[in-house]
Amino acid sequence: MDRLDRLRGPEPPRPHDARAIAALAANPGCARRAVLDAAGVDKDAVATHLGFPAPFGRSPFAITRGDAFEALVKEGGGAELLRLLRELLGLPLPLAGYTDLADVGGNPSAHLRHSHTRRLIDRAARDAGEAATLYDHPLLRLEIAGYHSYLEPDVVAFQLGGRFHIVEIKSFAVVDGQAEPDKVAAAARQAAVYVLALSTLLAELGHDPSRVSHEIVLVCPENFANRPAATLVDVRRELAVLRRQLARMTRVGAIVEPLPDTLTFDLGRDDGGVPRRPVAELRSAVREVGARYAPDCLNTCDLCFFCREEAAEAGATDLLGRQVRDELGGVATVAEALALADGSLAPDDDRAEIARLLRLADRLYAEVS
Ligand code: SF4
Q1: How does pLDDT run across 48-57, given as a tens digit for each residue?
Q2: Does the Cβ of 292 fall within 6 Å of ligand 1?
Q3: 141-175 per-position pLDDT tens digit
Q4: How many other CB atoms are found less than 10 A from the CB of residue 362?
Q5: Measuring CA to CA, how many Å separate 323 from each of 181, 271, 294, 308, 320?
Q6: N or C terminus: which one in the chain shows less Cβ crowding within 10 Å?
Q7: 281 contacts 46 by C-beta, under 8 angstroms
Q8: If we measure between CA atoms, which residue out of 142, 269, 257, 277 comes closest to residue 197?
Q9: DSSP code of 225?
Q10: Whose CA is nearest to atom 3 of ligand 1?
């Protein structure tokens, strides 16, 4: 852990919220991200100091719309949500309890709220006959590379008979049964974090973690109206990736081991909190850890503009997207792919097959152009 602390510098480790943890699963092969996140480095501050500020942040309009839709779904003690769950899960639910865990007797302390969530979830899991309950703002936590991260409570957990479903409320529209795949994928990754955190909590309490359903309930507005509609989304794949990535972060020592002992991402802030570290020096430090850029990074990682420029400078095949990169396995740059295609570069044994396919593609392209 000392090594990770040195990599970060004197700043306290940056806590991970569910959105950040979900983003880990978006690019599990990237060592740079794994190291920076394990060390709790503020990637946004690093990207800004490097001159590549992250393009994220929701517009005030989107935030207002999201808040209004969430309030609509939850109004009347979750009456509308209960109607949706009744239809979707085919359950005879005349009534359900509604417990808001946003604070405990007016005290919003994360520690207290988490203890309260634990107590209520434990009770619900023990008493399988207990009536259905909606838990709004449950405060869950996950261990990320040795640190406990509390998860932002923008979620509802629904339990019936000791079985739990995570409910994600999102304000992007579902039109004729279809939503934007990128948005659904991001929501599924985020919900998988909650499924994992709730399963972990059940296991810690001595209950069967599989009592948390791997099908989450996604609630979105339907057909441009504000009327909510619910669908089940299977997040098993996202869970598997997330588990792998979190395990990788606990083994991050193997990635950190060969890095120079003096390496740090410290921004060298002065007394006023202004970063003073020379940009060129920080750039070299970040480049010490290999990246695996993919266009998806533009939606999920604060360092995306920096890594995109680095990949462009190198002419990396990474820029062409994950599918092309995987199909070109072992061919790192566009120049190398072109040289293999026109025969000016002789392939080694490992790349003989991809070279044959590239030559074939080059011939076909020449014939039709
Ligand atoms: S933006 Fe860079 S650091 Fe972040 S996941 Fe992509 S390649 Fe890795």
Answers
A1: 999 999 877 6
A2: yes
A3: 888 766 677 886 667 888 887 789 999 999 898 88
A4: 16
A5: 17, 47, 10, 17, 8
A6: C
A7: no
A8: 142
A9: S
A10: 33
The 10s digit of each residue's pLDDT in 82-125 is 888 888 887 776 677 888 888 777 777 778 888 999 999 998 88
- Tokens representing 345? 């570069």
Q: How far apart are CA 98 and CA 95, in angstroms?
A: 10
Cα(45) to centroid(ligand 1), Å = 15
| Lookup: tokens for 31 | 């060592």
Measured distance CA(177)–CA(253) in Å, rounded: 45
Q: How far is the CA of 305 from the centre of ligand 1 (A)?
A: 9
Please return the burial class of 142, using the count of CB atoms within 10 Å of its CB with bins 0-12, 13-18 and 19+. Answer: buried
For residue 220, list its beta bridge partners.
229
Contacts of 242 (CB under 8 A, 6+ apart): 21, 22, 24, 25, 189, 192, 193, 196
The sign of the torsion formed by the CA atoms of 272, 19, 160, 98 equals positive
Return the residue matching tokens 């023990």. 126
Measured CA angle at 169 (ends 241, 154), to 5 deg: 75
Whether the CB of 26 sits within 6 Å of ligand 1: no
Task: Give CA–CA dist 354/367, Å, rounded.
Answer: 20
- Give the mutation target among 43, 303, 306 for probing the ligand 1 site: most ligand atoms within 8 A of CB: 303
- C-alpha 242 – ligand 1 centre gap (Å): 16
